[in-house]
Write a structure and sequence with these properties.
Strand content of chain B: 5-15%
Largest sheet of chain A: 8 strands, parallel
Strand content of chain A: 5-15%
Structural class of chain A: alpha/beta
Number of strands of chain B: 5
Helix content of chain B: 55-70%
Distance between the termini of chain A: 19 Å
Radius of gyration of chain A: 19 Å
Order of helices and strands of chain B: HHHHHEHEHEHEHEH
Order of helices and strands of chain A: HEHHEHEEHEHHHEHEHEHEHHEHH
Oligomer: heterodimer
Number of helices of chain A: 15
Number of strands of chain A: 10
Structural class of chain B: alpha/beta
Distance between the termini of chain B: 42 Å
Helix content of chain A: 40-55%
Shape of chain B: globular
Radius of gyration of chain B: 18 Å
Shape of chain A: globular
Strand order of the largest sheet of chain B: 2-1-3-4-5
CATH class of the largest domain in chain B: Alpha Beta
Number of domains of chain B: 2
CATH architecture of the largest domain in chain B: 3-Layer(aba) Sandwich
Strand order of the largest sheet of chain A: 1-10-9-8-7-6-5-2
């Protein structure tokens, strides 16, 4: 097995310049699996930035991937705005109740204060500590749930998607107050030295159509991305599910990298949008990474690289979405190992050994 | 086209055009004119919902449109259903549906419920965050033919396997068909836990449910 010869930061910088690299960047998107690396319960992350940082650093050192993302769940900003989140003892948190019982209470909603509200201060603390420890070798990001998705946690997804047709003005107000929270949180993340990493699953065409994306997702995402770019940072935008119909719009947000899941074909994304953005993806987090074997992971990585490894804007080999907590370590290792075997420039024999 | 046919077409159009008010008015008119309620539902409201489902599969409609179409369908159903003959109520195969415990994402489940409602099933909706035993109890109580399990989260997939295990240990496995669906679910997973079927979306779920009911009828024969 070839060993890594570059630090993630050096590798990504060289890749961006078109210089020689040892292998493609690779990011199995580790979230709460970090708890398994450290041997702590997932619920222990709640409000404990020091522990989140320790777990994320330990996971990065264990696997050697190319980006650390401070993340526990999608609900941190919505919770800071009043949504109720359920924290299972040892699994990823989920939304118990949206922030608003009735949409007419909307006027009461206030943007969150990231330095004070909910778990946001803990996540900022985690970002600071990760940067202190390993920021000189690896990019450090903090997950930020996008405006439309956060709005869905304020009023409930089904309610929100109905309102896109029945009461567009209310949806705009919900997205605007979400954006104000996003901007404040983004600014606080940037102040730690980390970069916000955007995730906006409800903007997927699995939920809303391209028409609604253009009206309710694109304008707010574009303002958020412009703000982050104004601080000199490149932005990754993750939307899972079906996204083909909105790839151009995702690039129109100004994002430098689109993180896509396994429901889309990266080879097709390469042709349609690969000259505008870097692509990131798209090994199935559930069927392959959680339930598959190391052999299956290697085959999936080879397919991804064969399909989009020559994308003009570059490729980050990644899982299609955050990895489930119980993803076997052997499968995460297999993803990195497959990328190491393929190397850069790609070793054809390593790519062609499809099972 | 006869006046009645025109009315059915208008009912269907009201559903496709997401016009809840119009669907209600047209249903009232059908009642007032003594049109057979079953036919008005079948050739009007349900016909419209099937067209909406087709548009959804063609990616012309998405979840927002499909939900509003269903609002129109239900508005019409609320008016027409009281006028069904008794025997038209009792024929439908029953499906117990819910989101497994530990998950509160229910849009996918709701879409499947809507499409099953429109396709001649009686749906008993348990809601979301439902413990495995509750599916079994509800299926027994309702004498359901199918238990339909949904989840969007990988953390709750094992809850689906638990439902199958509970049915087996209670000696009830043969009485119900189990179907599963949701973001992280695959045919391979369905097979591994011993479910009877997997579907990737709401339209497929209807086809699967119809197939499962057909096989369970022939099993019984």
């Amino acid at each position: 097995m070839p060993r890594d010869l570059m630090s993630p930061l050096d590798r990504l910088a060289a890749y961006g310049r078109g210089d020689a690299i040892d292998r493609l960047p690779c990011v199995p998107i580790v979230g709460n699996t970090a708890a398994r690396v450290l041997g702590v319960k997932v619920s222990a992350f709640r409000g404990d930035g020091e522990l989140i940082a320790r777990a994320q650093i330990a996971a990065y050192r264990r696997f050697g991937y190319d980006n650390i993302r401070v993340f526990t769940d999608l609900y941190t900003q919505a919770e800071a705005m009043g949504a109720r989140v359920h924290y299972p003892e040892d699994d990823t948190a989920y939304l118990a109740e949206p922030a608003l019982g009735e949409v007419r209470d909307l006027a009461r909603l206030r943007p969150a204060d990231p330095l004070r509200d909910g778990n946001l201060p803990a996540h900022l603390e985690a970002a600071r500590r990760v940067l202190e420890a390993v920021g000189k070798e690896v990019p450090v990001t903090a997950a930020l749930t996008g405006p439309f998705t956060n709005a869905s946690f304020l009023t409930g997804t089904e309610n929100l998607v109905r309102l896109t047709l029945r009461d567009p003005e209310t949806v705009h107000r919900l997205c605007e107050v979400s954006l104000q929270t996003n901007l404040a949180y983004a600014e606080a993340i940037l102040a730690t030295g980390a970069t916000p990493s955007l995730t906006d699953p409800m903007s997927s065409s699995t939920v809303i159509g391209p028409r609604q994306f253009r009206e309710f997702s694109l304008p707010y995402l574009a303002r958020l991305v412009a703000f982050i770019r104004g601080h000199g940072r490149a932005v990754t935008l993750h939307i899972c599910g079906r996204t083909r119909a909105v790839w151009q719009e995702m690039a129109d947000t100004g994002a430098a990298c689109l993180s896509l899941d396994d429901e889309v074909d990266l080879a097709e994304a390469k042709v349609l949008v690969g000259h505008r953005v870097r692509l990131m993806g798209n090994v199935s987090p559930s069927a392959v990474m959680l339930q598959g074997t190391p052999r299956g992971v290697r085959a999936a990585v080879r397919r991804v690289v064969a399909g989009a490894g020559d994308s003009p804007g570059g490729l980050v080999v990644a899982s299609g979405c955050s990895l489930p907590t119980e993803t076997p370590f052997a499968n995460i290792d297999a993803m990195l190992d497959a990328v190491r075997e393929i190397g850069h420039p790609f070793r054809c024999d390593a790519l062609e050994s499809h099972p | 086209m006869s006046d009645t046919d025109a009315l059915f077409q208008e009912l269907s159009d009201a559903v496709v055009e997401m016009d809840e008010v119009r669907a209600g008015e047209l249903a009232q008119r059908a009642v007032a004119e003594g049109v057979d309620a079953y036919t008005a539902i079948d050739r009007g409201l349900v016909h419209g919902m099937m067209r909406a489902s087709q548009l959804f599969e063609e990616e012309d409609y998405f979840i927002p449109e499909l939900l509003l179409c269903s609002d129109a369908m239900y508005a019409g159903l609320a008016i027409l259903q009281p006028h069904l003959r008794r025997d038209e109520h009792s024929q439908k195969p029953k499906v117990v549906i819910g989101v497994v415990e530990g998950d509160t994402h229910d849009i996918g489940k709701n879409l499947v419920k809507i499409m099953l409602d429109a396709s001649g099933f009686e749906v008993i909706d348990l809601g979301r965050d439902i413990p495995p035993q509750a599916f079994v109890d509800a299926a027994v109580a309702a004498e359901a033919r199918i238990v339909a399990l949904s989840t969007l989260m990988t953390t709750t997939m094992e809850g689906m396997a638990e439902v199958v295990r509970l049915l087996e240990s209670a000696g009830l496995r043969d009485r119900f068909k189990v179907m599963v669906g949701g973001g992280p679910i695959s045919q391979a997973f369905a097979t591994r836990i011993g479910a009877d079927g997997y579907s990737a979306n709401a339209a497929e779920a209807v086809r699967l449910a119809k197939r499962l009911v057909a096989t369970s009828s022939s099993d019984a024969a």
